[in-house]
Design brief:
With about 250 residues, the chain is of the alpha+beta class. It contains six helices and 14 strands. The chain folds into two domains: about 90 residues, Phosphorylase Kinase, domain 1 (2-Layer Sandwich); about 120 residues, D-amino Acid Aminotransferase, Chain A, domain 1.
Length: about 250
Amino acid sequence: MARRKKIYEGKAKTLFEGPEPGTIVQYFKDDATAFNAEKRDVIEGKGVLNNMLSEYFMNGLTQIGVPNHFIRRLNMREQLVKACEIVPLEVIVRNFAAGSMAKRLGIEEGTALPRPIVEYCFKDDALGDPLVTEEHIAAFGWASQQDMDDILSLALRVNDFLSGVMFGVGIKLVDFKIEIGRVYEGDYQRLIVADEISPDSCRLWDIETGQKLDKDVFRRDLGSLTDAYSEVARRLGVMPKGATPMKPTLIN
């Protein structure tokens, strides 16, 4: 498929105009960033793995009735998605204390939380995506109260799905981040899960060993990021044993 006009380039993905109105081509890059892009590298095969894994998770959400932007995978690095208006929030669901929450609240990393905790950050790289409350969101008009009710419901449904899928392959879902998009059907607005779901946007720990299988491997210099992501893909059956992200055998 011939690429159309580039409409946005982020740290991990590039977006192009899609072949039909209301669609976008999402291209997964090999770039890895951490600490608000202060640490950067190019990890060969990372984009292929994230494309495969995001397709797997989005299809799973579709099967259980959670609306999302995914239409179909186009090739090794690209997928076709619905165009949507992104709500300017990062929605974070935490099942265990880790990362910024552990540091901010002085909780030992890995501590199980009494219930899933949903946090919101304002999407602004220049500000470092600051944590915000529902009061901020309402006051600045980023989302209505009905939107927030729907966003919370979507986030918890995604958490239930991902937690179960990961537990089934021996992985603990520590936390994850999603973005939410608005799509319009006439005068009717609907909220959907957008962006991606991949080890870039989740913390994933092996249940038995605690081994990290997510972007913390890159953040903390814990080994090969490609090996970690490949292990997640193999356990989920997305990439057969023996395949590599440079020469994978995709399972449809």
